[in-house]
Amino acid sequence: MTVTLVKETTSPPPAAAGRTRRSRRRARPIALLFVLPALLLLGALVVYPVLFSVGRSFFDASGSDFVGTDNYTEMFRDPATFKAVRNTAIWVVAAPTLLTGLGLVLAVLVEKVRWATAFKLLLFMPMAVSFLAAGIVFRLAYDEDPSKGVLNAAVVSVHDAFEDSAAYPTARARDDHGLTAGPDGSYRTSERVHPGGSVNFGMVGIAPGDVPGAARPAYAAADHRAAADEVSGVVYLDFTPGGGGEQGKVDRKESGLPQMRVEAVDTDGRTAASTTTASDGSFRLSGLAAGSYTVKLPASNFEQPYQGVSWLGPALVTPAIIGAYLWIWTGFAMVLIGAGLAALPRDALEAARMDGANEWQIFRRITVPLLAPVLTVVFVTLVINVMKVFDLVYIIAPGPVQEDATVLATQMWLVSFGGGNNQGLGSALGVLLLVLVVPAMVFNVRRFRRSQR
Predict the structure, then answer these.
(1) Helix 79-110 and helix 408-416: axis angle, to 10°?
(2) Percent helix, strand, coil in the chain (nearest 5)?
(3) Burial of 57 (C-beta count, 10 Å sphere; 0-12/13-18/19+)
(4) Residues of the chain with pLDDT under 70
(5) pTM value?
(6) Residues in CB range of 188: below 8 A, 6 or more apart
(7) Domains along the chain with CATH numbers
């Protein structure tokens, strides 16, 4: 005999179902009551400004006359707008790519560091600094003066370690004492000199404190006589401390200028002999054949010292600002990618190691493909943030190169409030920026929904 058990399902009585529907209807107004403040705030801070900007973009600068799409037409005819679009494109391509790559590399490396938490905290700390403060810090760091800008101080130190700078960049010769300034910045004798003769170069424009400490008085050296095959002389500071003395003559208290390069140039313009001055400023150009020569102080003696790189010049201002942005956001990318890395299945990594894969193969063929969803979210989020960048560009870029560094956000502000006073055109730029940001936002929202499913 077969016995079949049938489970009987009972539906709630009509009265109970009615009570459930009535309770749900009563709950909806209560839920809307709690959501209403957030909706009002969202409408006041997001929806209304967007609608107002769209409407304002169809009016002129005063806001009184309807001009249709004239603002949009003018926007695309303006060279400054094209430059802003170009710079924004550079930002969108360079900054998120570099940040995602740096974040991935650092997240992988941090796993192998003993003090991983401290390292993450150190890299994430710039996120706590406002863009205003970070902009001021990097404006100072990028200063072209090596005494102020730390980057140029480092660059100048490295440069000077491998290449000597000019000894006397401010020195110049007196115009009325037989010396002529060359077009290249050199100085030479006005009259030609024959072997056995001597010539003295009196220089000015050098502060007594800038004279090398090894310098000795030049008075005794000025009396040396030259041999038959040489030209001698002295290069000295034609200034007597405390006053007195005679211009164009070597006085007892005047210092020689050591390490000054001196050349003898023949009639064909070739250098026949060269030397550097001694501690008392004396020099001897030996081995000269019979004839006449011009004694010359090359321009290399007076070249201005190396001042480093013009970080905030027209050519480098955008990469320099992107560098400041990387400093701030690298920790953010590293932390998000590190969270995704911690969730990876370790058995897949261990299986690859057991099969003989090295760390680079594991990183390229397992880690990166598994992290692709996280990397995409980080990249798109950074794209959205980059399109809205304003603070760093406005603060770091000096006034003369502000136009070379401008992006859509700064251009919108400059046109509306920074001197243009055309809020119709500024609103059109704001709408353009919104149109560019919305696709990235939609893509990000869809990624989040797919990840939740």
Answers:
(1) 140
(2) 55, 10, 35
(3) buried
(4) 1-28, 164-166, 175-177, 242-243, 451-453
(5) 0.73
(6) 179, 180, 182, 265, 294, 295, 296, 297
(7) 70-154+311-452 (1.10.3720.10), 172-301 (2.60.40)
